[in-house]
Amino acid sequence: MNNAKDFTMNLVLQGLDDCMPRLERIAALTAPQGVTRISSTALRCEGIAFSPALRQTIEVAAHAAQLDATYMMGIRHLNEFRLVAMDMDSTLITIECIDEIADMQGLKPQVAAITEAAMRGELDFAESLRRRVALLEGLDAAALERVYEERLRLSPGAERMLAAVQAAGLKTLLVSGGFTYFTDRLKTRLGLDYTLANQLEIVDGKLTGKVLGDIVDAEGKRAAVEHVCAGLGISPLEAIVMGDGANDLKMMAIAGMSVAFRAKPVVREQATVALNFVGLDGILNLLA
């Protein structure tokens, strides 16, 4: 950040469970002008004289204490935003659906290795998806229902976060490089406004190993956010975008707030906010 040392900033520290003693210990390192208790698990240290050295010290100490530390200019509020856009796999939900589908074929290690490389940005996403889906050829489509019912779980804090943003009047977009089978069900279950994902081809009750239509890759995700914002008559700067993998970076880059949730290093480095320990509802402490 150019000339960051010329500014004072605020720092939000947050954690899980009985973390207040740890929060107060880290807060004391910042020599703040003031400290506000946002909740039982979050503090805002106000008027910190910014320096790269202090930032590194705080981030290392916070990580060691299993706390999330977010630097912010001023105080931001939820009503500044109009849209929350979320990745699905390993963001809104805890699993990578394609890896769990592959497990039904006894191919999880092979598929998961490709998924991991793609999320780190080492493979082209569209090509990696085609390779993974091809391995699913011949699988009974009933495996999708088993994954949804038996393995799909919402990420910590997801329901509380969604309840708060929906109550505040924000629209919600679930945009995924995963599959419509899961996004359609989550849209109904969670009352989401918009969804976009890839459609698996199913013939005679079995997966063909192919995806129908254009693959929702990084460009597709960014275009989806722009399209929804245009339809709402808002700027992408009025959007909060959450993701965990390299294919989320383009949509995160155009957002007013980008949130890396338990994300790959390449994503954490480029996001406005990195939440490594708290749940998705951690954004509420940043917008209080």
Automatic annotation (TrEMBL):
Q: Which cofactor does it need?
A: Mg(2+)
Pathway in which this enzyme or protein is active: Amino-acid biosynthesis; L-serine biosynthesis; L-serine from 3-phospho-D-glycerate: step 3/3
The protein here is known as Phosphoserine phosphatase
- CDD domains, per the entry: HAD_PSP (cd07500)
Q: Which family does it belong to?
A: Belongs to the HAD-like hydrolase superfamily. SerB family.
Quote the EC number: 3.1.3.3
Its source organism is Pseudoduganella buxea
Keywords (alphabetical) are: Amino-acid biosynthesis, Hydrolase, Magnesium, Metal-binding, Serine biosynthesis
Which catalytic reaction applies to this protein?
Answer: O-phospho-L-serine + H2O = L-serine + phosphate; O-phospho-D-serine + H2O = D-serine + phosphate
Q: Which NCBIfam families match?
A: HAD-SF-IB (TIGR01488), serB (TIGR00338)
User: Which InterPro entries does the record associate with it?
Assistant: HAD-like_SerB (IPR050582), HAD-like_sf (IPR036412), HAD_sf (IPR023214), PSP (IPR004469)
